[in-house]
């Protein structure tokens, strides 16, 4: 029970990585606040948390809206009495366009979804962690922040900003025993891939580009988040963990064969 008696907020926890993280945290002893804009699916995740024998609550929250984030934090503190862990997982790529065709509104909405959301959640959670002089914040970035597979400048810029924010907050929050780290996921089979989510052939081919030979599952990211949330990582802050199956290393078929 790595998270016994801990309280966690996981944003974007209705599906995918956030859902897997909430359920894994519960299995390790944490009570979990499941925050998402899809309340029905958030309730489904909270139900799975409760099946693990822990308290789970679903909260509707658009993480780009400061009032809603503030309300979320107040509800969690009122219900659980504290916040030990924050997983900033809310994000996504709802639109794509070349930079020359991208509107300011499109840029703002995607950067807000991926970067402002992380800022707002930290803004309202950190005071409670400071008061208790303890906490763990895990920010979910993207391999595209450091090694873009294609050009999505708004999304990759936002996710790169998450890495910069992680380092800055880690420095500022060390005196309060609050650790801040980030996870850089590689290709993970989630709704990020839209209509291709059920396409086994697509993911099999995508897996061939990964050194470990497969795409990741949401539980692969959840496992890294569990490590960073627990005392197993008590001396780690300001770090990025690549959970990418070996990317951006060359895939096995592209590596040169050493001479005998």
- Average pLDDT, all residues: 95
CATH architecture descriptor name: 3-Layer(aba) Sandwich
Major β-sheet annotation: 7 strands, parallel
> Helix and strand succession?
EHEHEHEHEHEHHE
What's the name of the CATH homologous superfamily?
A: NAD(P)-binding Rossmann-like Domain
Count of helix runs: 7
Q: Calculate the terminal CA-CA distance, rounded to whole Å.
A: 48 Å
Rg calc: 18 Å
Name the helicity range. Answer: 40-55%
CATH topology: Rossmann fold
For the record, the CATH class is Alpha Beta
Biggest β-sheet: strands ordered side by side in the sheet? 3-2-1-4-5-6-7
Our count of domains comes out at 1
Shape: globular
Account of the protein in words:
This protein has helices spanning 16-27, 39-51, 66-80, 104-132, 153-173, 200-207, 218-229; strands at residues 7-11, 31-36, 56-60, 85-88, 135-140, 178-185, 240-243. It has a single domain, classed as NAD(P)-binding Rossmann-like Domain (Rossmann fold), CATH 3.40.50.720. A seven-stranded parallel β-sheet has the order 3-2-1-4-5-6-7, with helices on both faces. It starts with 6 loop residues before the first strand and ends in a 17-residue tail after the last strand. α1 (16-27) packs parallel to α2, α3 (66-80) runs parallel beside α4 and α4 packs parallel to α5 (153-173). The protein is globular, with a radius of gyration of 18 Å. α4 links the parallel β4 (85-88) and β5. It has seven helices and seven strands. The protein is α/β, with parallel strands linked by helices. It is 42% helix and 15% strand. The longest helix is centred in the middle third of the chain and has 29 residues, at 104-132.
């Amino acid at each position: 029970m790595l998270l016994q008696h801990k309280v966690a907020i996981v944003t974007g926890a209705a599906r995918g990585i956030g859902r897997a993280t909430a359920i894994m945290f519960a299995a390790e002893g944490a009570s979990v606040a499941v925050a998402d804009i899809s309340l029905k699916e958030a309730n489904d995740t909270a139900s799975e948390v409760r099946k693990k024998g822990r308290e789970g609550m679903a909260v509707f929250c658009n993480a780009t809206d400061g009032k809603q984030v503030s309300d979320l934090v107040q509800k969690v503190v009122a219900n659980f009495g504290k916040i030990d862990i924050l997983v900033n997982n809310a994000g996504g790529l709802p639109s794509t366009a070349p930079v020359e065709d991208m509107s300011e509104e499109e840029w703002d909405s995607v950067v807000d979804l991926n970067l402002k959301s992380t800022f707002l959640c930290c803004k309202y959670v950190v005071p409670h962690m400071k008061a208790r002089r303890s906490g763990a914040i895990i920010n979910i970035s993207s391999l595209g922040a450091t090694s873009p597979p294609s050009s999505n400048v708004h999304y990759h810029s936002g996710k790169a900003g998450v890495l910069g924010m992680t380092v800055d907050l880690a420095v500022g929050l060390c005196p309060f025993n609050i650790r801040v780290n980030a996870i850089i996921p590689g290709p993970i089979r989630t709704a990020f891939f839209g209509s291709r989510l059920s396409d086994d052939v697509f993911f099999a081919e995508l897996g061939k580009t990964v050194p470990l030979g497969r795409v990741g599952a949401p539980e692969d990211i959840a496992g890294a988040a569990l490590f960073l949330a627990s005392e197993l990582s008590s001396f780690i802050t300001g770090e990025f963990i690549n959970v990418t199956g070996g990317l951006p290393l060359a895939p096995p078929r592209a590596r040169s064969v050493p001479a005998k």
